[in-house]
Every structure is written in structure tokens, then in C-alpha cells.
């Protein structure tokens, strides 16, 4: 009964509070893309925006924690997510992802989160076209405006800065490496940074860092005027690295065939088979639930919801994936039926 009530509450919150903001910001950003003169960059920007609806569904798991102002959280996270997806799309399609270019373009995330006081950079200085007609700067400024409204931003600022620095460092390593050196460079990077989590493989540590769910959770929590550092940490300890890692495994799971044909990196390639990453998801779920979170029942609901968003995706039921998806549905435990049904209904109505 508890799962039914929580899944129903999630569905109502998503329809009434999160989705309208996602749609509004998406339309605004689409309008801003009209100023981009370079057609290839305009295409990248619009491709990124088309992915944001599903990204927002995933991000929604961060907005359901106690005392979170959902409209405010949806606004700031959607603004941040738009930049993330744009940068990722640019880098995925670029053949000139040099370290100077990556370091400069990803510095926009620091500016967006108001972690630097200096003026905006010319983010595309090292890109062949030299600029994107100011589109990224617009996204950054819009996000900065939302960040300034967060009543407890100072509480999460240091944690946010630490996670973001690690994330940017991984992006530079990932996108600046050529195909022959990428695997070695990422392995070395994870060895240097992931010693604190011996229960994770090097690739799994990369996955956890590559997910920004911890950052998004902190932004959501910062909408609570009474947030304390202890409270933020008690929730985030389950997210990083455990729930973040589950997120990226599931993302790789539904994108496996697409990434295989396009040559994009997919961390799931380093698992031997479907059964192995099914087992690792179950292990990570247990780890997340064992953390000393202030609300373990809410953590359990968060994991169930994240699983439901991915295993109800059409790609999760193609070929052999259907078997794994059924196993993950079962592994999620009691109440998964209600969460997956709620997500399916939202998807059927084109909310994501």
C-alpha cells in the first residue's frame, strides 16, 4: 500500500509540477537556438534539447526528498541539465575535442553554478567555428539566475564544488583521449581517484562520477531553507557512488546497441554479459540501502523509481534485454509493479 501511495504521489508531482517547467524551459531554449548561425552547432543544440525530456524524468528522483521546493528544484535542475546535455552532444559529435577546448567549455558548468567570480569565458575559443553565437552563455546565465534563488546554496556549495571538479576532470580525460588511448587513460584516472571505494571496479567508479545525480540532489536539497550539511550528507551518501553507479549502468543498458554501432563509449561494454551487470545492480542497490541515510524508506523508493524509469523504456525490452528487465523488476522488490505502472502511464501520455 505504501508503494502504491508513493507511486501515485510521484505521478501527480511529475504531471503537475515538474513537467510544466520542463516544457516551458525547453521551449525557451529552443527559441534561443534560432540565434546560432553555424548549422552543425544548431543541430547539436536541438538534439540535446530533444533528450532533455527523458533526462528530466531521471532527474525527478532528486526532487522528492523532504522539504524540497519541487517547482524551484525542477527549474534549477532543468537549467543545469540543459547545459550538461548540450556539452555532451557537442563533444560526442566533435572531432576536435582537445584538452584546452574541453577544459574551457566545461568551465561553463562552474560559471553556471556560480562557483567562480570571474567574467564569462569565450567558451568556443578553441573550437573551429570559434563561437556558438552566445547560446551557451545564455544557458549559463539562466542557470546562474536560478542558483541565486536557492536559500541554502551556501550549505551545499563545497560538496557541489568537489563533485563538479571530479566530473569535469573525467570529461576531459574521456573526450580528449583518442580511441587507442581512451581505455588506458580512464583506467589510470579511476586508479588515481577511486581508492576510497574498493568495492567498485575502476569502470564503476567512472560511472559514478559520470552521473551528475549527486549534484542534482544537492541542488534540490538546497531549496530547503532549513537544510544542514549533516542532512545533505545523510541523503547524498546513498547517491554517491551507489545510486549514481546504478544510473549509469542502466543508461548504458538501454544505449548499448546504439553506442556499439556509433563507437561511443559505454561502460557496460566492460561487463562480460547481461547477467553480470544485473548482479552488480543488485549489489549496488543493497549498498545504497545499507548507508546510514536519514530516511531509508525514501532511498528504497528512489531506487525503485530509477529502475522503473529505465526498465520500462522501449529499448529495455528489445531482444535479450527483456529477460534482464524482468529480472531487474523482480530484484527491485515489493512495490515495483506500482512504480513501473506509474512510469508507464506517464510515458504513454508523452510526459517523457
From TrEMBL:
A Pfam family reported for this protein in Swiss-Prot or TrEMBL: DUF2600
Domain of life: Bacteria
Protein's name according to its UniProt entry: Tetraprenyl-beta-curcumene synthase
Organism: Ruminiclostridium cellobioparum subsp. termitidis CT1112
Taxonomic path: Bacteria, Bacillati, Bacillota, Clostridia, Eubacteriales
Amino acid at each position: 500500500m505504501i508503494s502504491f501511495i508513493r507511486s501515485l504521489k510521484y505521478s501527480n508531482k511529475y504531471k503537475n509540477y515538474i513537467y510544466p517547467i520542463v516544457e516551458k524551459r525547453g521551449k525557451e531554449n529552443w527559441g534561443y537556438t534560432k540565434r546560432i548561425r553555424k548549422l552543425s552547432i544548431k543541430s547539436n543544440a536541438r538534439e540535446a534539447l530533444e533528450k532533455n525530456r527523458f533526462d528530466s524524468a531521471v532527474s525527478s528522483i532528486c526532487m522528492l526528498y523532504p522539504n524540497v521546493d519541487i517547482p524551484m528544484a525542477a527549474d534549477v535542475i532543468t537549467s543545469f541539465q540543459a547545459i550538461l546535455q548540450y556539452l555532451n552532444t557537442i563533444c560526442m559529435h566533435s572531432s576536435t575535442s582537445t584538452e584546452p577546448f574541453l577544459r574551457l567549455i566545461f568551465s561553463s558548468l562552474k560559471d553556471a553554478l556560480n562557483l567562480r567570480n570571474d567574467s564569462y569565458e569565450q567558451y568556443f575559443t578553441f573550437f573551429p567555428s570559434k563561437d556558438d553565437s552566445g547560446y551557451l552563455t545564455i544557458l549559463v546565465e539562466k542557470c546562474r539566475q536560478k542558483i541565486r534563488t536557492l536559500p541554502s546554496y551556501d550549505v551545499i556549495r563545497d560538496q557541489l564544488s568537489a563533485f563538479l571538479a571530479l566530473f569535469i576532470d573525467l570529461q576531459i580525460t574521456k573526450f580528449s583521449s583518442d580511441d587507442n588511448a581512451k581505455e588506458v587513460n580512464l583506467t589510470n584516472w579511476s586508479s588515481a581517484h577511486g581508492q576510497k571505494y574498493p568495492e567498485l571496479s575502476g569502470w564503476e567508479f567512472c560511472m559514478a562520477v559520470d552521473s551528475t545525480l549527486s549534484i542534482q540532489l544537492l541542488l534540490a536539497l538546497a531549496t530547503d531553507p532549513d537544510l544542514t550539511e549533516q542532512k545533505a550528507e545523510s541523503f547524498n551518501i546513498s547517491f554517491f557512488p551507489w545510486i549514481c553507479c546504478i544510473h549509469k549502468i542502466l543508461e548504458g543498458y538501454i544505449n548499448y546497441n546504439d553506442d556499439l554501432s556509433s563507437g561511443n563509449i559505454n561502460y557496460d561494454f566492460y561487463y562480460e554479459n547481461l547477467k553480470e551487470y544485473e548482479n552488480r545492480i543488485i549489489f549496488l542497490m543493497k549498498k545504497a540501502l545499507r548507508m546510514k541515510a536519514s530516511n531509508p524508506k525514501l532511498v528504497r523508493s528512489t531506487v525503485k523509481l530509477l529502475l522503473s524509469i529505465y526498465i520500462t523504456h522501449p529499448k529495455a525490452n528489445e531482444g535479450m534485454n527483456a529477460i534482464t528487465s524482468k529480472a531487474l523488476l523482480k530484484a527491485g522488490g515489493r512495490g515495483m509493479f506500482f512504480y513501473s505502472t506509474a512510469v508507464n502511464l506517464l510515458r504513454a501520455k508523452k510526459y517523457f
